[in-house]
Amino acid sequence: MNLAMFRATLDGREPPPGLGLALQALWWDAKGDWDRAHACAQDDHSPDGAHVHAYLHRKAGDLANARHWYRRAGGEPATGLVDAESVLLIRDLLGDQT
User: Fold this and answer.
1) Are 81 and 14 in contact (CB under 8 A)?
2) Residue 68 is assigned to a structural domain of this protein
């Protein structure tokens, strides 16, 4: 799956089968459901889940909490546009090199 295919699934009611929790979180986020996105990210205890968790808190304006989750993910807080971070996360998690 690539970014375009991921976006095409957003017409559905549920994330497509086979997406891990971090991608499910980004799917719900793209649908505008921050609470469901956050629940998925919170249940993913991997560095990817922590990075998505950080992104979600950054998007919500909770920068202190976001910084905590960026540290848990092993990285520095993002400074670019929030929408650009979402695209980068989706592509990275999908392995989309396009």
Assistant:
1) no
2) yes
N-terminal to C-terminal alpha carbon distance within the chain: 11
25 lies in some domain: yes
Residue 87: closest CA among 30, 47, 37: 30
**pLDDT digit string, tens, across residues 32-70:** 999 999 999 999 999 999 999 999 999 999 999 999 999
* Cα separation, 15 vs 19, whole angstroms: 7
Rounded distance, CA 55 to CA 38, Å?
Answer: 10
pTM for this prediction: 0.95
| 52, two tokens | 């998505």
Residue 11 belongs to a domain:
no
CATH number of the CATH domain containing 82: 1.25.40
